[in-house]
Amino acid sequence: MEEFKLYNASQSICSHKVRFALNAKRIRFTEYKLDLFSGDQLKPEYLLINPNGLVPTLVHNGINIIDSLVIVQYLDEICNNSETFTPQNPAMRARMRSLMAYIDEVPTPAVRIPSYNMAFLTHFKNMPEDEFQSMANAKPLRKEFLLKFGRVGFSEKELNESLDRLSRSLIRMQAEINNSKGPWFLGDKFSIADIAMMPVIIRLEDLSLKYMWDNKPEISHWLELIKNHPAFQPTFYHGSLLTEQYPHLNKKN
Ligand SMILES: N[C@@H](CCC(=O)N[C@@H](CS)C(=O)NCC(=O)O)C(=O)O
Question: What spacing in Å lies between the alpha carbon of 14 and ligand 1's midpoint?
Answer without folding.
Answer: 6
